[in-house]
Amino acid sequence: MSDDSAKRAVLVQPGGAPLTYTILVRGFAAPVAIAGRADRPQVSFDLTLTVTHPGPGFPDDIAAVMSYEDIVEDLRRLCAESEISGADYLADRAAELCLSHAKVRKVQADVTIPAPDSGGPSAGASLTRVRPEQR
């Protein structure tokens, strides 16, 4: 079977919405330099991405589908930044990074930062972003 990606049409559901699938990134954790904290807490990320389906008979080729590895690399770079303001910033930037990939239609980003002391409450943020429809 040959792959002619240029001729591949986007499949649509009833009502005209593109056919999609879901990628889950669960339990990604990395040390982050949070502004005002001397430690580098292990911040955890959970992402749910709604991604455009490549169509029937797509090849077993990473170029035809969205790779979660691209998202993980983006998260690693984000976590390497210095003086992060907090969970809301991390969730917003994670969502922005996900939507920078053309195949991602929607993302939910959940971020949790543990408390400075082991018994305290953690801080977190959860948000959902959707790619604006192009006409």
UniProtKB/TrEMBL annotation:
InterPro entries for this protein: FolB_dom, GTP-CH-I_C/QueF
Keyword Electron transport: no
A GO BP entry: folic acid-containing compound metabolic process
Domain of life: Bacteria
Residue span(s) of domain Dihydroneopterin aldolase/epimerase: 23-129
Keywords of this entry: Plasmid
Entry protein name: Dihydroneopterin aldolase/epimerase domain-containing protein
